[in-house]
Amino acid sequence: MFAPKRHLYADRAVSGAYTYNRKALDQLLTDVRNGLIDVVVVEDLDRLSRDLGDLGRMFRTLESRNVELHAATRGKCGIMEVTMVGYLSMEQRLKVTTITTQGRWLAAADGRNPTQIPYGYRRSALGPGIIEEEPETAKIVRRIFDLADKGVSPGTIATLLNKEGVKSPKGRLWSRSCLVGESKRWLGILRNTKYAGLSIYGRIETRRDPDDGTVTMTVRHPSRWIICENGKIALVDPDQWFRVHGRLITTICTKVRGPGNRGEFVFKGVTFCTCGAPMYGSFLRKDRARILFCSAARRGGCNNKRTVTAHFMEREMLRIVRDVIAAPEASALFETEYLARRDHVTRKVVADRTRLESAIALLERKLERTFDEDHSRALSPDRISKLQTRLEKELGELELELQNLPDLEEMPKLPDGIVADFRDAVEKLIGRLPIEKVGSSDMVLFQALRAVVRRVVVKMKPNGGYVLKIDGHLAGLLGSSSTGVSPTRRLVRTCPPPGRGFMGDTDRRTMFETIADTGSYDVSEEDWLVAEPLLGTRRKDAIPQRTVLNAALFHARTRVPLNVLPPRYGTPHGISRAVRIVLRSGALQRTLEALGSRGSKAVDGLDHSVFERRLKDGRANRNVRRPVRGKTSASRVAPSRNRRRA
Ligand SMILES: [Zn+2]
């Protein structure tokens, strides 16, 4: 039996009034153009489009490719059916819109509320569409108007209500836009005319572009508005309402709000405060460092006023991603799990397909037999037709099930090295923190990171440290296709207060300490024989001169400040003092020259400018006996003091 290949194209829950945003329709037309289709069957022509022009265009496309168009209700359709149905459905659409709009106006004129029930009201028992005051929320509406009338700004009112724990109409925190929304459409409580007992309809005219679906709104001339007065529903005095409205127009809404200063940060959108509100990023500091803060705290909905410097938190997070979530072991585990899951799904789909296909073949044979002569003789025509209907129905169900089997392409093969590449990208990103400019390639990585780290809750501690609670899984790298591979894992990481200064970052400190411990910049034994007499001797309990020389070389090679040299060279204070002494006396310079003339490896290509600069700045000449006070770095304070003395 000839079995044509069938394919179902369906745009679920999308209006047929327009042709944009209809992926299945686009796919169908593409397949038609590529000559993959002979016949298109639709439930009715208005499934394709309810617009005469669109239908006509589509019909021409089908016609030019010799594709037949059939409607389940009409059979084969020609240009006449297409034109008729197109015209009728357009007409009907217009009628429905007009009836709905007019119905609303009539209902409003009748004292009913045809739209959503506004905040402060509830449905009345008096009849459908009739609303009445809801005492609790109406009290809040009145308070909002009283405050606004006194000149309190909408933002302040929102904060006030949040602090009192009053919930907004949506059950969340109050915000400025809750009170004064978009000005053209008069959104927000302070702009709602119903509170003054006025229902206004037909103020806004919306038009939709038939090609891309963009909506434009224009305010109609007031003479065309439908205004229904219903003093019974007024919550505030109309005079007060107009006073507030006048203030909104003249003062509050004339303020041009500048571009937001919310900074892009790596984990934007997945970072939350312990109160559940998202954390925002902002350039609030003078040094242009981004800080993160609880978005609800600003509006009085959360007591957490602490902030976190974005790049400290980002560095911790990225390290966790690199070392835990995307670590080689985790990645191997994930790959195994993913492959197992993929295997399972594949096997199930293949088994289901085989089962369904054989069941369909069986039913088709049964159905065919009912048309046989022998068969028809054994049963009455009535029973045969009943049997055929039943078999056809079962067949249809099975075919639908076959079509709805998951597509194996939705679970792709794991791209080679996907996790390793991701880890490398994260590693590079860590090196770039704090990120100054976010490029488009960064955004791709950010998206991946936000998919891998699904949620971070930041709990800030009084000492400046914080606790990160992270929900994350590598499956995020594959998008939605890998859902169900395994549940996300939760990690808790306590971070100490971010360190400050040159060695504030632990990774950096570890790196320099490792370099120092290898001793690769040290002088050799032969060098030391030359250097020892030039440097002179020190007290027995002092840091040995050889260590002082090595420390000076390390300082010149790495530019690590003298007061934070690795512990290998002794206490930071002691070693920086010792180096400054040999520098001031000129012994260090003489030693380096002598070593240089010997062709020593230790001073090969050494940049002496770091010492020269110290001498010129007068840093090395200052009284080295002055104790270093508090946290202030001695070298940073010195120049200003010298200037003052001069
Ligand atoms: Zn919070």
UniProtKB/TrEMBL annotation:
GO terms for molecular function: DNA binding; DNA strand exchange activity. It comes from the Bacteria. InterPro entries: DNA_bind_recomb_sf, DNA_bind_recombinase_dom, Resolv_N, Resolvase-like_N_sf, SSR_resolvase. Residues 1-71 form the Resolvase/invertase-type recombinase catalytic domain. Residues 617-646 are annotated as: Disordered. Transmembrane segments: none annotated. Residues 118-254 form the Recombinase domain. PANTHER family: DNA RECOMBINASE-RELATED (PTHR30461:SF23), DNA-INVERTASE FROM LAMBDOID PROPHAGE (PTHR30461). This is DNA invertase Pin-like site-specific DNA recombinase. It comes from Methylobacterium brachythecii.
